[in-house]
Amino acid sequence: MSETAVCPGHRPDKSALDRCHAIILAGGSGTRLWPLSRALMPKQFLTLKGALSLLQQTAERTLTAFDPKRIRVVTNEEHTFEVHNQLEALDLCFEGQVSAEPHGRNTLPAILLGVASILAVDPDPLIAVFPSDHFIHDVEAWGQALHAGANYAAEGWFVTFGITPSHPETGYGYIAQAEALDENVFQVAGFTEKPNYERAEEFVQSGRYLWNSGMFMFSAKSLIEAVEAFEPELATWWRNRKEHPLELGYSQLPDISFDCGIMERASRIAVVKADFGWDDLGSWEAIYRLGLKDDKGCVVQGDILALDCNNSLLLSTGGKLAAVGLNNIIAIQTRDATLLCAVDQVQKVKDVVTLLRRQGSPLVETHLTVRRPWGSYTVLEEGPFYKIKRIEVQPGAKLSLQMHHHRCEHWVVIRGTAQVIVGDKEMLLVENQSVDIPKASRHRLQNPGKVPVEIIEIQSGPYLEEDDIVRFEDVYGRLAP
Predict the structure, then answer these.
(1) Could you count the other beta carbons within 10 Å of the beta carbon of residue 268?
(2) Which of 195, 323, 408, 476 could form a disulfide with 373 if both were Cys (CB 3.0 to 4.6 A apart)?
(3) Both 302 and 210 in a single domain?
(4) For the chain, percent of residues with pLDDT exceeding 90
(5) What pLDDT is attached to residue 7?
């Protein structure tokens, strides 16, 4: 392995890494961190450790090794504006460097989307792929590992990064090492996806197995050759990209991961053994393990009253959580859902989400507060034929010009000055003023001021869901075809 460290803000001049472009994968739903993580606000956008979200931490870390123009983010169409907002909060402009999946189709199609945008500016690039929901403790050691990986990627190898396991973990994949290629670089003998505890224990004791970090490096040329060889459906879609938009037919693509589609089938696979303090913050057990513990071994976040609790994670974002006599328990409370789970059962949280989805529960998709490009809304109360929201519009922002087929609305301004269009009338409303929005009337809410506008919206009608919106104008490109 190279002994040249990559320190924050410094990139050595001559290295295969200088040929490399980074793809940050910011899709996914983070089901194992429910109820805090939801489909419209998954874990990569949450602040779980430190002052920044996982996406923001990943972006800052990636900038220590890559020029900003060599970084691409691939996310879901629903999350594009959240990605831009979070990166802009760091004074990072990624305009034109964010690709949006119209539908989630797993990591291999998502990576191809990112590669397509890179090939538009570089005909023969190396590619590095980073999940947006990982935590790295030693950025300098991470940079050293990237240099080693880039050198092998430049020679046509598919490279992954393996972490020495510290304990038997059933939530991670494992990589079997074969013969050494270099110091801390090995050929890969095989992959094992999330073994049971007994087998994970055998892997750890053998010393031959590493945790699969989910980070990869390869050349774009090697990737396209592998797609042609192993995934003919994806290859056909890829070849037609110049005649048709790449997003066309995306929802019909196979749902396949990069691991299953490429890494488990390619012949030249190398793993860089790199202990840079890696954690996949993909479960409540990981959040507990990495959290700051009190003298009774509890991690406490939010408005908590804990009596005689030990070795537990207690987290509330939705009011007072009182806990008495809990031992080895995960207790997560939001405004609309509560999770209680034994620490050793956290991998089953995703099964809870699966059951809720089958029941058609909205708890899988959204929080009571939902972020939008123009601001946010919070559902305060709802019942048959009515719903009450608090809407916040950021300075200079405006909602689409729209109408509803099935509901009427009544708006009351509680903060700021709102510019409102209803039919052919335009008006300015200040605090304590209100307006009625009849069913099927065109209307728009805008904030012309320098402070956020807040209104209370009362909806009434037989159908009150978000898909009862017909947009006529929208500055955020959300008009239906």
Answers:
(1) 14
(2) 476
(3) no
(4) 73
(5) 35
